[in-house]
Amino acid sequence: MTDSGLIEMYGMMTLALDQIEHCREFAAIIPEVRSNLVFARTDARTREDVLAVDGRITVVGGMPHASGKPVFGASSHMARLIIEYRKYDPAVRAGIDFANTPAFTRWLEQYCTKNDWAFSVIDRRNEPEEIKEAEGASMPWKVKEAVRAAGTRPPKIFYETGAIGKEPVSVLVGRDPLEISEQICTIAKLYHDRR
Fold first, then answer.
1. Nearest to 177 by CA among 3, 49, 37
2. CA distance 155 to 144
3. Once rounded to an integer, what is the mean pLDDT over residues 138-153?
4. 66, 141 contact by CB (below 8 A)
5. Distance between CA 165 and CA 172 in Å, rounded?
6. Percent of the chain, pLDDT > 90?
7. What is the mean pLDDT of the chain?
8. pTM here?
9. Closest CA to 156 of 195, 109, 188, 190
10. CA end-to-end distance (rounded Å), the chain
11. How far apart are CA 126 and CA 36, in angstroms?
12. Is 112 exposed, middle or buried (0-12, 13-18, 19+ CB in 10 A)?
């Protein structure tokens, strides 16, 4: 990747993180494991090809806060997820994970329907034992399951049910971090203001 391509990636991540850090409502949907925003190179093959927040996004003083700077290789889980997802939709290069609850999930499904976004669920109870036991083997299964459950097109938002020792999380994917930050902040604000 050229220097200008890298500068563009870092610039987009910085602007996206700034938007997220100014979205108080997003703090309410950051999971216990914390959130991460990722942005893959166009030819990403490993986690070292994916820009992510070093230390993830946490909550400080009631506001979302990036613990560190964007760094290539800073994410394992979300980096592997976005690389796997790109096998089904190469236009997707970015994603963010966030919390889910039954009420929020029901609202998200309705929101996706209204916006003509594909939505799906990964039921971790269906994960084959041999995949659960093999280190790093679950990501291809999870993404394949999310795409299968969505039906005719890969999902814009999907979530996984919890499993023993695994917090249930949702994922939003998109073309770049600016698309992600705008959409996740809109979701957080609308969900907060729904009452």
1. 37
2. 11
3. 90
4. no
5. 22
6. 78
7. 92
8. 0.94
9. 109
10. 46
11. 26
12. buried
- Interior/surface letters 114-149, b for 16+ CB within 10 angstroms, e for the rest: eeebbbbbbebeebeeeeeeeeeebbebbbebbbeb
Nearest one of 176, 174, 158 to 98, comparing CA atoms? 158
Q: Which phi and psi angles does 37 have, rounded to 5°?
A: -105, 130
Total Cβ atoms within 10 A of residue 28: 15
Tokens of 131: 């995949």
Q: Is 100 helix (H, G, I), strand (E, B) or coil?
A: coil
The amino acid at 190: L
Instruction: Count other C-beta atoms under 10 Å from residue 40's C-beta.
Output: 25
Local confidence band at 123 (pLDDT 50, 70, 90 cut-offs): confident
- At 43, the pLDDT band (50, 70, 90 cuts) reads very high
